[in-house]
Design goal:
The chain has 187 residues and is an all-alpha fold. Helices cover 63% and strands 0% of the residues. It is built from 10 helices and no strands. The structure holds 2'-deoxyguanosine-5'-diphosphate and fe (iii) ion (3 copies). Its EC number is 3.6.1.41.
């Protein structure tokens, strides 16, 4: 499949708004891939499919988590988290995408995890800083993303944890693991 075929393949699975978000994430991910010397093709492919499962029913996602090798503890956390790991499984099954790096970047684009590779960081960051977003603290992250992948990713996780804690939400452990791991690496 080429880029236009990927875009055509994801479109029927998304709302118009989510599709536009996806195109912005893909453009942002390609810029970051150029900047930080990662395969632009993999970054674009992962970004195009990163929210593939966003509109699956809670029942379908729950069943897939239970019947796959995904950790069942996902079910104890907010269902907003499920579309990322579930999406990685569904794009493999339904779109025959088998690149494990691409699937990893889709899987961890929401929570992050310890020891992320550059592609995983790029998709997580692109999702957060794409031009349609506005979060408190986002300008600082966009600036850091000009030249420091680790720091911008760390800021993304820090902001997300602060936001979730502010609401009193439960936070998936991988998000803390990602944050702690990057804390060791930033200057
Ligand atoms: O799918 P998108 O809206 O483009 O972006 P996302 O996949 O990053 O969104 C998931 C939302 O999930 C995000 O706004 C925060 C929320 N969330 C709920 N629990 C957690 C969480 N995010 C993280 N990182 N960790 C959590 O435990
Ligand atoms: Fe998402
Ligand atoms: Fe995100
Ligand atoms: Fe997204």
């Amino acid at each position: 499949m080429n880029r236009n075929e990927w875009i055509a393949a994801v479109k029927p699975h998304l709302t118009e708004q989510r599709f536009e978000h996806t195109l912005r994430v893909a453009r942002t991910a390609v810029q970051l891939a150029k900047r930080f010397h990662v395969s632009e093709e993999k970054a674009e492919l992962a970004a195009i499919f990163h929210d593939y499962a966003k509109f699956r029913s809670l029942d379908e996602m729950r069943q897939l988590i239970l019947s796959s090798s995904l950790p069942n503890d996902l079910l104890l956390y907010h269902h907003e988290l499920w579309h990322a790991p579930v999406g990685a499984i569904l794009v493999r099954q339904e779109q025959a995408i088998h690149d494990t790096q691409v699937l990893g970047a889709i899987h961890y684009h929401t929570t992050g995890k310890a020891h992320m590779n550059k592609l995983e960081m790029i998709v997580l960051l692109a999702d957060y800083i794409e031009p349609g977003r506005s979060f408190p603290g986002l300008e600082e992250v966009r600036e850091a993303a000009q030249d420091d992948l680790i720091r911008s990713c760390w800021l993304t996780l820090r902001n997300t944890i602060q936001f979730l804690m502010g609401k009193g939400s439960r936070i998936y452990p991988d998000t803390f693991h990602a944050y702690n791991d990057l804390t060791k690496q930033i200057n």
